[in-house]
Amino acid sequence: MPLIPLEDNFDDVINKVQRGLQVSDEALANRAEISLEDLHKVKNGEVIPPVIRRVARHLGLNAPALESLARHAWYPEVPVFPRGFAAFNTAFGDMRVNSYLIWDAKSREAVAFDTGSSVDGMLDVINSDRLRLKYVFITHNHEDHIAALPELVSAHPEAEVWSHREEPLTLESAQHFDEGVHFHVGSMDIKTLVTSGHSAGQTTYFVKGLSWPLAVIGDSLFSCSVGGSPTHFRDQLANNRRKIFTLPRDTVLAPGHGPITSLAQEKKHNPVFCYG
Ligand SMILES: [Fe+2]
Questions:
Q1: How many domains is the chain partitioned into structurally?
Q2: Cα first-last separation, the chain
Q3: Are residues 20 and 149 both part of a single domain?
Q4: From ligand 1's centre to the CA of 88, what distance in Å?
Q5: Is there a domain that residue 276 lies in?
Q6: Of the candidates 46, 70, 94, which is a domain's last residue?
């Protein structure tokens, strides 16, 4: 599979944080004591380190990480799962969205996280590995993440569909959970953590029992960026810090868009969350 590009470029990250914190270009230039012209140059891809440093400081971002993003100098390394984990990347309009499947090698029970726009790849793995789909967990209810849910459920009507109480039910048969619930599948333990902001009941699923601890994080966080929200951006930042950035360092992060990464790497390279 070709490498999945980072979800957000340098200018996307700045714009997203500005929108979330409601800081206009004029206000940012003013506070950072830079010219509007320099701000626009930087947003258009020119790497001017002193300007990037000032922008970073006034938006609460890590300057070296932001500069490295501007230079396209880093891309996450993906850890190897010998078995029990598969990632799918499907096209939804002009964007691409991720969905995931995990399974217990012994009991052959499987769990899907979101569906993306097509479950063809997921159904192939389920069939070829002779898995039984026990649960479908929804990170959040935005259309790109659940577009192929009817198809998945009609192929596996035995699977239970779950999401957090604050997300509208996706199907009549779907069920709601609260935060802090544990689901058990074979030797795997899946815990629900609400990392809302981008959407009201957006959930991170923390999985133990695979080769690495795994967090399926939806649009809470992307490699080198964060989930956007025009209204609840500060909640997204706070929830990520409190619930994702306190997970074990070797936790693999499986986001709704962009490449898979790890907590250790984001602690070093994500301009929104690293502290140098
Ligand atoms: Fe999304």
A1: 2
A2: 32
A3: no
A4: 14
A5: no
A6: 70
Would the pTM of this model clear 0.90, i.e. be above it? Answer: yes
CA of 30 to the centre of ligand 1 (A): 33
Distance, in Å, from the CA atom of 196 to the CA atom of 166, rounded to the nearest integer, reads: 9
Q: Which domain holds residue 64?
A: 10-70
pLDDT at 1 over 70: no
**pLDDT per position as a tens digit, 40-78:** 999 999 999 999 999 999 999 999 999 999 999 999 998
User: pLDDT tens for residues 73-93?
Assistant: 999 998 888 889 999 999 999
Q: How many Cβ atoms sit within 10 Å of the Cβ of residue 85?
A: 20
Distance from residue 83's CA to the centre of ligand 1 (Å): 26
Whether residue 254 is contained in a domain is answered as yes
| Residue 142 and residue 62 share a domain | no
Residues 147 and 120 placed together within one structural domain of the fold:
yes
DSSP class of 2: P
In a shared domain, residues 152 and 36: no
CA of 35 to the centre of ligand 1 (A): 34
Whether residue 65 sits in one domain with residue 90: no
φ and ψ of 21, to 5 deg: -95, 0
Between the CA of 260 and the centroid of ligand 1 the distance, in Å, is 15
Biggest CA-to-CA distance, the chain: 62
CA pair distance 74, 57, nearest whole angstrom: 21
pLDDT digits (tens, 9 = 90+) for 140-162: 999 999 999 999 999 999 999 99
Asked if 181 and 248 sit in the same domain, the reply is yes
Residue 21: give its domain's CATH number.
Answer: 1.10.260.40
Cα 120 to ligand 1 centre (Å): 19
Q: Are 224 and 71 in contact (CB under 8 A)?
A: no
